[in-house]
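Record type: monomer structure entry
Structure origin: computed from sequence
Chain ID: A
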Amino acid sequence: MAKVRTTLTIDEDVLQAVKVRGARTGKDDSQVIEEALRRELGLDLLERLWQRKGIGEDEALAIGRWLGGESDLVGSEALLTEFERALACPKLRRRIPAGDAAEFVWLLGRAAVLAPDPDAGAYRSADPGDDYLLALAERERATLVSGDRHLLDLADDLPIQTARSFLDQLAGE
């Protein structure tokens, strides 16, 4: 990847910490700052997951565009808890190590727009466990992006899309 020069204005204590980290690791200031930014922005996690085939191309593109500020991701504590539980399932654990899963949940909690958990909404899914997602999307006026068949069955009446169709929509804007 091409590098560009930039000038930063940072707190003296932060610069001192960068220099200490650099001395301990044998890295220059630029390397320490870039690694910290990549970690904070979630870029190193995405690269690890992509290299390991832990996520597909559609998911990686959607996450990259979200982290790049092209869209907002709306969530809630209940959704983060469900996501964390899903990432702990054996099927996903084989693809995404526990540390990466925890880091991804942390990233979502920090970078997503976290809305309060919703009360019951006007819409119902064939799977009652999905109803809070419908209520959250309704209250926040958000498109629900999912691969869940119960939710996608409602796509004719509600703004629900697959990751691929959501990315296609973003590409067209």
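Annotation 1: Residues 12-41 form one domain.
Annotation 2: The two ends are 27 Å apart (CA to CA).
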